[in-house]
Amino acid sequence: QVQLVESGGGLVHPGGSLTLSCAASGNIAKVTAMAWYRRAPGKQRELVAKIGSDNITNYADSVNGRFTISRENNMLYLQMNSLKPGDTGVYYCNWLGLLTSGWNGYYWGQGTQVNVSA
User: Fold this and answer.
1) Strand 67-72 vs strand 75-80: parallel, antiparallel, or unpaired?
2) What is the per-residue DSSP string for the chain?
3) Measuring CA to CA, how many Å separate 18 from each of 24, 26, 43, 53, 102?
4) pLDDT digits (tens, 9 = 90+) for 4-38
5) Parallel, antiparallel, or unpaired for β 112-116 and 10-12?
6) d(CA 37, CA 46)
7) What is the rounded CA–CA span in Å between residue 45 and residue 14?
8) CA angle 43, 71, 19 (to 5 degrees)
9) CA dist 96 to 4, 8, 28, Å?
10) pLDDT band at 96 (very low <50, low <70, confident <90, very high)
């Protein structure tokens, strides 16, 4: 099992910044990839940014150039700049990798709310 705990959400004005954090713990042998997803009100969950074990990153077109994903050991971060009302939603941390049992695992955090509003 892997536990993911997100933090850093909150209310911010348009144009503002927030940094989300995700702490991964548990029976981790190797991380394959970690990612941030979000679910906007009334919409399906979508990929925001992803980082592989090789530190190669991918971003949704809507956030490219404004958001930066990074990882250090078992911590995942999302630096969000120039926030827009359309960035409002619940942000989820996602983990994919190898467990100490030898099995692959795929886990989600509980989510952290981000509200961008004037």
Assistant:
1) antiparallel
2) -EEEEEE--EEE-TT--EEEEEEEEESEEEEEEEEEEEE-TTS-EEEEEEEETT--EEE-TTTBTTEEEEEETTEEEEEE-S--GGG-EEEEEEEEEEETTS-EEEEE---EEEEE--
3) 20, 27, 22, 24, 36
4) 999 999 999 999 999 999 999 999 999 999 999 99
5) parallel
6) 5
7) 22
8) 55
9) 11, 22, 10
10) very high
Per-residue pLDDT, 35:
98
> Mean pLDDT over all residues of the chain?
96
**41, 87 contact by CB (below 8 A):** no
The Cα-based distances of 70 to 11, 13, 40, 41 in angstroms read 22, 23, 22, 26
